[in-house]
Amino acid sequence: MKGATLRLAAVAACAGALGLAASYWYGGSPLQRSDTGQRALQAMADASAPAPPAGVEPARPGDRIAPIQLPDLDGNLVDLAGIAPERPLLVNVWASWCGPCVEEMPELQRYALAQGDTGVQVVGLALDTAEGVRGFLQQVPVDYPILLETPGPADASVWLGNTRGLLPYSVLLDARRRVVKQKLGPFAPGEIEHWAAEPGLQDGS
Q1: What whole-number distance in Å separates Cα of residue 87 and Cα of residue 203?
Q2: Which residue blocks in the chain are alpha helix, DSSP H?
Q3: Same domain for 59 and 44
Q4: C-beta of residue 92 within 8 angstroms of C-beta of residue 157
Q5: pTM of the model
Q6: Tally of structural domains, the chain
Q7: Pick from 188, 99, 171, 107: nearest CA to 142
Q8: Are residue 186 and residue 116 in the same domain, yes or no?
Q9: Statement to judge: residues 29 and 62 lie in one domain
Q10: Cα–Cα distance for residue pair 174/181, rounded to 1 Å
C-alpha cells in the first residue's frame, strides 16, 4: 500500500509540474519561443504520460518516423512520408473542437503560403471526423493537406511523439522524414519561422 501511495504521489507531482509548465507556456512567457523550454515541456509530458500500447514506439528527435497512412477528406489513403517528396514537413496535430488549435490555424496558413512550392510543407493531422473538419474549414479555410485520424492510445500522433495526447502538437520532419523537433502548444504570431529555421532540413543532413 505504501508503494502504491508513493507511485500515486509521484504521478501527481509530474502532472502538477506539467500543468504549471503549460499554464506558464500559454500565458505567453519567454518559454514560448525557447527551444530549451519546449524540450523541457516535452520531457515533462513524456515523464507523466502513460506507457504506450505494446508495439507503439513514439518518435523522438533523430528518429525516422514509422510508416503512417491516413485518409484525406475525400477518403483517399495517403502516405504521410510521401507528401511533398524531398521537402521538409511540419505536421500539425489538431481538432476542430480544440480552442488553441483553432486560434493558430491562420498562422499555419500564413506560414504555408510563404513557403511556396520549395520550402517546408505544412500538413494538418486532424483527430476528428471528416464532417467536423469540413464544417470548420468552411469558416477557416486552409490550402495545405489535411489528413484524418481517430483519437486513441495508438493513433498517429502518438507514433509522432505525442505521448500525452495534448493538442495542438507539431512535429518538424527533415527531407528524409527524421524528427527534427517537437512542440506542445500553439504557435504565437511570427513564431513558426524561428522554430522551423533548422539547418539541414532540405537535404536531411
Answers
A1: 8
A2: 2-26, 35-48, 99-115, 130-139, 156-159, 191-196
A3: no
A4: no
A5: 0.77
A6: 2
A7: 107
A8: yes
A9: no
A10: 10
